[in-house]
Amino acid sequence: MNRHPSGLVVGIMRGLAATAVLVVPMSASADSEQARSQVWDIARGGQLYDDWGKVLGKELPDTTHPAYPASGKQKGSATWRCKECHGWDYKGADGAYGKGSHHTGIKGLRAMVGADPKAILKIISDDNHRYTEAMIGRGEMEKLALFVSLGQIDMDQHIDRATRKSRGEPGRGAPTYQTICAVCHGFDGKTLNFKTPETPEYVGTIARENPWEFMHKARFGQPGIPMISLITLPDTTLADLLAVAQTLPEK
Ligand code: HEC
Ligand code: HEC
After folding, report:
1. Contacts of 73 by beta carbon, 8 Å cutoff, 6+ apart
2. Per the database record, which ranges form the Cytochrome c domain (predicted)?
3. 86 alpha carbon to ligand 1 midpoint, in Å?
4. pLDDT tens digits for range 183-198
5. Which domains does the chain have, with CATH numbers?
6. Which atom from ligand 2 is nearest to the alpha carbon of 245?
7. Does the Cβ of 192 fall within 6 Å of ligand 2?
8. CA distance readout (Å), 147 to 8, 19, 219
9. Distance 222 CA to ligand 2 centre (A)
10. CA angle at 53 for the pair 48 and 57, rounded to the nearest 5°
11. Ligand 2 pocket, 187 CB below 6 A?
12. Which ligand is nearest the CA of 203, by number?
């Protein structure tokens, strides 16, 4: 247990549900019928990490982020997403972005697990990051900081980095996929095509090609669209879900 600077008592979690988290609601304002849970804030922070522009309905700046290295292969608005520099596995240069078209050499955020969200908030708006309150409002920045401090998991525990294979069991993941994801993505994962008819990209494609992205999106939801967040399920259940998604068709 950890007493938070804000007075909230939370279980530092690795898989929220796994360590029964005690969530003390934020001070309820007169007009809110139900107090927002801290877990909801963390989930929102996770989506902001993915793409704050889509979450907030804003355009990301179209100039390349000043901290993005000249040697990097991305440019423009994409370089303003947190994940572009720090990775889907939060390990930056020490993780999956250690090589390939998203390589930047920038460090990850794993050292910030459990850090004071106020200190994280300062980093996000520092001269290196240059996120202003006009871009990401103060309340949303606080959620981002909560995600960095309390919402990360160690993806290497669930995904073999070399083979990209989930360490979970497809048989155990099938019920989760079929009862939660299939309503939108289809039993075979082909109801939603994220790309074009000629070069389709399905949930099975992402699961195989970028299992870290899959895990992040399954835990927090897809920014800007009504997709659910599975953050309250144990990480191992999500690894099982990833395992079954890796068996779904790509074509
Ligand atoms: C264009 C690249 C880039 C983007 C995008 C970016 N960062 Fe960073 N971030 C960096 C660099 C570079 C450092 C290391 C700075 C240093 O060590 O002086 C860093 C460091 C950090 C740290 C401190 C990590 C540590 O262990 O010291 C945190 C926390 C952080 N970033 C959060 C975020 C968040 C949240 C976002 C999205 C709102 C974000 N960053 C977007 C480049 C980026
Ligand atoms: C309520 C409907 C709904 C549910 C339930 C749902 N999704 Fe989604 N999901 C979507 C929509 C809509 C998109 C965006 C499709 C697009 O961008 O073309 C999406 C996108 C995704 C993406 C990312 C595509 C990308 O690269 O941008 C992944 C991964 C994903 N879903 C996985 C899942 C998993 C795993 C589950 C079950 C835990 C799930 N989804 C449940 C509607 C849903």
Report:
1. 101, 102, 103
2. 168-249
3. 7
4. 999 999 999 999 999 9
5. 2-152 (no CATH), 157-245 (1.10.760)
6. 35
7. yes
8. 15, 17, 12
9. 6
10. 110
11. no
12. 2
Q: Which ligand gives the minimal distance to the CA of 179?
A: 2
pLDDT, tens digit, 9 for 90 and up, residues 216-247: 999 999 999 988 999 999 999 999 999 999 99
Query: What values do phi and psi take at 84, rounded to 5?
Result: -65, -35
Cβ-proximal residues to 98 (8 Å cutoff; 6+ apart), any chain: 91
pLDDT at 226: 87
Categorize the per-residue pLDDT at 13 as very low, low, confident or very high, splitting at 50, 70 and 90.
Answer: very low
| Least confident range of 23-37, 185-199, 200-214 | 23-37
> Is any atom of ligand 1 closer than 6 Å to the C-beta of 82?
yes
Q: What is the mean pLDDT of residues 77-90?
A: 98
